[in-house]
Here is the input.
Amino acid sequence: MSEKIDIKSLSLGELRQNMETMGEKPFRAKQIYEWIHQKQAVSFAEMTNVSKTLREALEGRFCLTALEMLDVKISKIDGTRKYLFALADGNVIESVLMKYKHGNSVCISSQVGCRMGCRFCASTLDGLERNLKPSEMLDQIYRIQRDIGERVSHVVVMGSGEPLDNYENLLKFIRLVTDENGLMISQRNITVSTCGIVPRIYDLAAENLQITLALSLHAPCDEVRRTLMPIANAYPLKEVMHACDVYFEKTGRRMTFEYSLVRGVNDNEQEARALCQLIGHRNCHVNLIPVNPIKERDFVQSQRENIVNFKNLLEKNGINVTIRREMGRDIDGACGQLRKRYLDQKDRKGDEQLGGLQ
Here is the structure.
C-alpha cells in the first residue's frame, strides 16, 4: 500500500491537481484548503460542507497532520507559553508563544533536535533526529491559535533546529503560512534564524522573499566564534558577512544579528569594539541575548552591568541595538530545554522499569 500524501504540506495548486486526479471539481480544493489552513480542522470529519463520500476518499488518500499537545507551561512573569507537542512518530518538539503589544508571536521549531552543536543551546545536546515537514511547522502555529483563541501575527523560526538545514521544507512552510488563502501572515512578520550556512543564505537571497534573516553571530571574530559554534569551522566570518551583505542587497531587508552574551567569553569591552568594527557600517539591528544557562554546560549569564555597558558602546557607535526581553525564564524558556527535560524524565522512567525487571 502506498504512503498517504501529507495534505497539509500541499499548496493550493498541488491540492487542485490531486482533486482532478480523484475526478473532483477544482473548487473542492479551495474548500478543503480553507478547512485545513483557515479553520484549522484536525480531521476530515470536521469538513461539514464536503460530502461523506469525498471525506472517506480523502481519508484513504491523505494524512492530515495534527500535533498532540503534551504539555503547556505558562510563565507567571510575563504570560509566555511554552508548548510541548508530540508528532505522529512519537518524537517531541517545542514551541513558544510570546505576547507583545504588536501582537502574538510564535517561535517554532524546524527540526527534531539539531546537528549544529552550538555550545550554549539545549536543542543540540542529543543531535538531530529528523527534519520537520511543512505541515508540522505550520501545525505548531495552528494548535497554539486554537489553544488561545487568538490570531498569531508574527512567526519566528528560531526554536529547535537550524532552519536552513531543512531548506526546502522551510521554503514551503513560508509560502503556505503567507498564502492569501491560508493564515496570510505577512512575509515581513516572519524571521528566520541561521547559525550561518553560507550557501543557503545565497539561495535564500535569490528566493524573492521579504522575510527578516537573523544571523546567530555571538562573537565578532573567528577565534571566539569557533569555541561557541562548530559551524564557524566550515564558514569563516568573512564569508558569512559577505553572504549577509548579498541578502541585504537582494532583498532590501535589514539584517538582524543575534548575540548571546556569555560571561567572560564574549561580553567584554574588547569584544564590543570588535563587533562595532565588524558591523558598524552595515544596515542592521543587534539583539543582545543574556544567555539562558543550561545544566549540561558551564556557561554563565553576563552580569547586568556588562550587558548594559556592551549595549551602550554599540549605541555610541550608531548601531541599532536591543537587549532581548527575557521571556519565560521560569518555564524553561530557552530553546530545547523543555523537550530535553521531557526526554530525560522518559529515559529515567525507562531505566526504573528495566531495574524492576532485573
Q: What stands out?
A: The longest helix spans residues 337-357. The CA atoms of residues 342 and 354 lie 19 Å apart.
